[in-house]
Write a structure and sequence with these properties.
268 residues; 10 helices; 44% helix; globular
Length: 268
């Protein structure tokens, strides 16, 4: 079947210098898309491009700060000149911040508005707003595109401690549905993926002790996950390729695909 063949597509993956974004970039390249690896860390970006090319794919790194409109504009022009006009946009920038995490040492009422705003800027402004304004609006003008935003299980049910992150990711779901409606007649589909718990740099300290053993929070997460394990970044690829492919998901917009091992299905 060729429903999932992305040959001829150009995918801009913002945040592809991270674990999840990098895996998505590599997966889209394996499916045939030409992939623009966008991020701030050139070393990690070039390493991801090397892996893409080593597997027979096409990719290039472009420096970009997702929270800076001018940086995105420059990157957009460079991607278009090098690979062609993007037809797929993956927004994988984002993350939690210890400064807005409720702990025994930091109560909810001690979170500063500046730190709260910074986390919203990371997850909502850089994570969705500016990239969609820059890349998504151009797709709408051309009449074709697929945008994939990265949500979180905490967007659906606010997790303990990560209050700002949960609120920002809930907003990501809302903006996703808003844009799905706005651009539905312009040939642009806008969907999201909700990952469960995938160990990465940003959450490794929350999940593992220095000796590699799971923390109490990790044990709680695993106990709440019917599959009883963490996810691996490659397990997000099927959902991403499905949403990226116009042939496979041409009537799918405003949807959220959960890849969470059943976490959001667990009650008592």
């Amino acid at each position: 079947m060729n429903l999932f063949d992305l040959s001829g597509e150009v995918a801009a993956v913002i945040g592809a210098t991270g674990v999840v974004g990098g895996a998505l970039a590599q997966g889209l390249a394996a499916a045939g898309a030409k992939v623009a690896v966008l991020g701030r860390n050139a070393d990690r970006g070039q390493a991801r491009v090397k892996a893409i090319k080593g597997a027979g794919g096409t990719g290039a790194f472009f420096s970009a700060d997702a929270g800076n409109r001018g940086s995105l504009q420059t990157a957009h022009r460079a991607v278009t000149d090098s690979l062609g006009a993007p037809t797929i946009l993956v927004n994988a920038a984002g993350g939690n911040d210890p400064k807005v995490t409720v702990t025994a040492e930091r109560a909810f009422n001690q979170i500063s508005t500046e730190d709260w705003q910074a986390n919203f800027d990371l997850n909502l402004v850089a994570g969705v707003l500016l990239p969609c304004q820059e890349f998504g609006a151009a797709m709408a003008e051309r009449g074709r595109g697929s945008i994939i935003n990265i949500a979180s299980v905490s967007a659906h049910i606010p997790l303990s401690r990560v209050v700002a992150y949960s609120a920002a990711k809930a907003a990501v779901l809302s903006v996703t549905q808003f844009l799905a409606r706005e651009w539905a007649t312009k040939g642009v589909r806008v969907n999201s993926i909700t990952p469960g718990f995938f160990p990465a740099e940003q959450n490794r300290r929350l999940l593992f002790n220095d000796d590699g053993s799971p923390t109490a929070r990790a044990k709680s997460i695993l106990g709440h996950t019917p599959m009883g394990r963490f996810g691996e970044a490659d397990e997000l690829l099927g959902a991403a390729i499905f949403l990226a492919s116009h042939k496979a998901s041409s009537f799918v917009t405003g949807a959220d695909i959960r890849v969470d091992g059943g976490f959001l299905s667990q009650t008592i």
